[in-house]
Amino acid sequence: MKYREFILCKYGEIVLKGLNKGQFERALLGAVKARLSDIGEFDAYYAQSTLYIKPVSDDCDLDEALRRVKNVFGIATVTRAVAVEKELGAIIQCAVDYLPAFIKGAKTFKVEGKRSDKRFPLTSPELAAEVGGALLEVMPALRVDVNKPEVTVRVEIREEYAFLHANAERGAGGIPYGTSGKALLLLSGGIDSPVAGYMVAKRGALLEAIHFESIPYTSELAKEKVMTLAKELCEYTGRIRVNVVSLTAIQEEIKRVANEDYFTLLLRRSMMRIACRVAKMHSCDVLVTGESLGQVASQTMRALRVTDNAANITVFRPCIGLDKEEIVEKARKIGTFETSVIPYEDCCTVFTPKHPKTQPELSKVLEEENKIDFGRLENEALQALENRLISVY
Ligand code: ATP
Ligand code: MG
Question: What percentage of the chain reaches a pLDDT higher than 70?
């Protein structure tokens, strides 16, 4: 018999949102619908702190839908589930027909019942016992283990149907994309900044990106690598606009005029000022960087303070307390690592000083800064700004 399959998504933090819950649910539903728009017709809706995804057309790709919704922020667990009428005989028949394929290979299991519809005649434990018993009959090698089962089967009596499923998978967690405001991510080609972007997007920040290039010192291919990273982030965000700004003239002027020890700090302050102006153009509330305390000379506390002094909006540095190894682990998990390690030059590695100041004094930095007409150079850089909208749908 062919059963109707759904994808069920359980919310994470949204359930705690009190009076604002509806707004978060709508944002989540919008994100899910957008992610499924090109793989068949689905009916997606929410009820009782669960998002239901019901395939409508025959060409719905449920495996791909599951893979995609796993990356939608705001979802704690995701599972394929079968829907059946709320009658014990039908539930048991469905359990023995549908579930073995999902349990195959496991030695231990348990069944959990959940009765949201209290009109159903069996209690949750009774229901679990009935379904568990029926499964043991058709899979006699299986053993019940209520503490550490390899597979957890769930039978849920809900509003419209009874749902059965085995082994829900973890979703992306976080809160729905775009519910926390808009952030401008300083996206380099490295490992850290995509991770930083992911971390704030997971907490609901809508991402806009800015990338600084320095052609001919950096190449066209370095920029394409950044576009690939942006596309990889789109698995979670749907779309990102990347603003590309050239720093070539600014870097050449810094090299020509300033004391070498201050090259990087002057450059980073200029990047901050430009980023703040781009943030304003696109109504972003904060900047986001991939900096981590003590990672390089420009990321000591003192250097970060000098950099921050050039910004007139808040700067988020979500990787600040992470070791490189921890950032790498996250980059692998979100799927950006392989692209990040492709070797290309970055504007920050052009004209790097032999002895960068790790404990800079702001007054000295300002003295160097005043030798250069940054106002004019930054205006010119912004006039030549290009942007590209990167999207996965
Ligand atoms: P990443 O691995 O992200 O490149 P990093 O460890 O190489 O970081 P830096 O090169 O010092 O560190 O850069 C620190 C942060 O400054 C980056 O995480 C990023 O947010 C920003 N940044 C650096 N280079 C660029 C660039 N070319 N365009 C935009 N932002 C940049
Ligand atoms: Mg870098």
Answer: 99
Does 4-170 carry CATH code 3.30.2130.30?
A: yes
Strands 151-157 and 162-166 turn out to be: antiparallel
Which ligand lies nearest the alpha carbon of 278?
A: 1
Where exactly are the structural domains of the chain?
A: 4-170, 182-391
Q: Tens of pLDDT along 246-283?
A: 999 999 999 999 999 999 999 999 999 999 999 999 99
CATH number assigned to the domain covering 182-391: 3.40.50.620
3-state helix, strand, coil in the chain (%, to 5): 45, 25, 35
Q: pLDDT digits over 162-184, tens only? A: 999 998 999 999 999 999 999 99
Instruction: State how far the Cα of 111 lies from the Cα of 99, in Å rounded to an integer.
Output: 11
Determine if ligand 1 sits within 6 Å of the CB of residue 211.
Answer: yes
Q: Distance between CA atoms of 21 and 360, rounded to whole angstroms?
A: 47
Q: Same CATH topology for 4-170 and 182-391?
A: no
Report the C-alpha gap between 193 and 235 in whole angstroms: 16
Q: Is the pLDDT of residue 382 over 70?
A: yes
Range from 102-116, 121-135, 342-356 carrying the lowest mean pLDDT:
342-356
Q: Tell which atom from ligand 1 comes closest to the C-alpha of 298.
A: 11
Q: Which residue of 186, 207, 326 sits with most ligand 1 atoms within 8 Å of its CB, as the best mutation to test the pocket? A: 186
